[in-house]
What we know:
single chain; about 325 residues; two-stranded antiparallel ribbon
Amino acid sequence: MQHASTAYVPRPRPRWWTELPLLALVYAAYSAGRLVARGDVSTAVDHGLRILHLEKALHINFEHPLNRLLTAHPSIGIPADFIYATLHYLVTPVVLVWLFRRRQAVYRRARTWLMTSTLLGLIGFALMPTCPPRLLHATHGFVDTMAQYSSYGWWGSEASAPRGMGGMTNQYAAMPSLHVGWALWCGILLWRHGRHPLVRAAGIAYPLVTTFVVMGTANHYFLDAVAGAAVMGVGALLAGPVMRIADRVTTRFPRFARTTKSPIVSAGCKTSAGERIPGQRTTSADSTDAAASADADASAGRAPRADAAAPAGAGAAGDDTPAAAR
């Protein structure tokens, strides 16, 4: 008796009704983590000053000249403030949706990469609360461009948060810069998987513009940007192991296992030589063999066998004839 086989079905494409809650959960953890990991203000200021002093010693304090440029030229500073306040929350979801709809083969790994890197960034916020340059004392030479040009946007003096809602954000979560990290994630994916030259050019420009903006607006140090890129690099390395762990968890619990009955009844079953499935039609090769057998019987003086005596087309006709007529 033949049995239907149980075959492993490859992981189906993600569905939007499962992806949205997952991404919403990660973003909620990101927002809550920033609030929980506020730390002591004096400790955050000390960390910011140490970073600034290290950059000066290495001559890589690029945020000083960029901040002076944006402060002196509103035509550059105002668009930079809008970029800082908006693109971080718009471009990343757009790239995710684009991958989900057009690049299914890479979507799961890219999403896992982004989520893992974001969680690593939260660990950085908790371990090293850092005061951004704009919140240091004025003697250190920085101007808060978000406050300077606040009349042109919805933000106030508390980063990019809407006026009166500064208490809902952590202004001391500067290390690492996830603005730069997320922009780098978007840029790499646009460059690698975009087909139009403009899309690939945007993949190069977006991380560079974001790095310029976060330093020019005095929201991050250069080393914050470097740390943001490093976090994304570690997240890319961990994406594969994280997916394998998720697969093991899925297969460990039967209700999450993606197996199904094979629709092919004879899957995994074989017939022996000469064996026919009931109702199977006789092929031309079988008809030739039957005729040769009948000739051999006639030569030997034996009575022909029933299956050999039948005409070549009789078997096929008999199979097609309704049961009541046979």
